[in-house]
Specification:
9 helices; 4 strands; about 220 residues; alpha/beta; four-stranded parallel β-sheet
Amino acid sequence: MSDAIIVVGWPRSGTTWLDRLIIHYLEGPEVEPWTEAERGLHPRSFRVHNMTNEEVACHIDNGDKIIFTIRDPRDTAVSEYFFLHHKAYSVMDVSLLRFLASSFMVERGGWKAYARRWLDLADTHYDIVSTCHEALWADRRGELERILHRLDIEPDKASLDHAARVSWQFGSKRPRYVKEENWKKAEPSVLAGQPGEWRKHFGLKEKFLMEIYCGGLIRKLGYA
């Protein structure tokens, strides 16, 4: 039997943040607020962006717990776009509108199919817990406590306080990606990560495209 906690979600949905919260809860002050080399390598908690049904079943049979985290797809798309657009090794240089149509709605089967699959898995498997980026943003300590209860882990107050406190420094500890000087954009756009930030970057075309693509699911998830 294993006891790993696996965080899964579409890129830029809060998977790394939640994974680090859990690691800080489990390990306490011994873990640095952000250590790039540790991402995805912790034996008790790690994150992935997808698993096959066979892998899901195998983890559940092994006694592992899976946490699926979701985020407003408009914020997810904007965050992923700027993240990819400004990584030093990325060659992507397209508009946000084109990114939505050619990548966000296509890769991994598209965000909508991806989200529906994992929401269905969370509804039908007790060992799969769902959460959202917005809940962590509003009350990371309270949401972590809820998740731990749901995972049948009795929360420790001191560990919860430590994880919540250290995770507040998360953003300032992350590495920055800057393009080379001969590229079009030398400095990355700064995103605060707060809910609703997509409004600063979506025009009418982007809004219309996302409404056609997943407007019903956006409202069903409460992202009116």
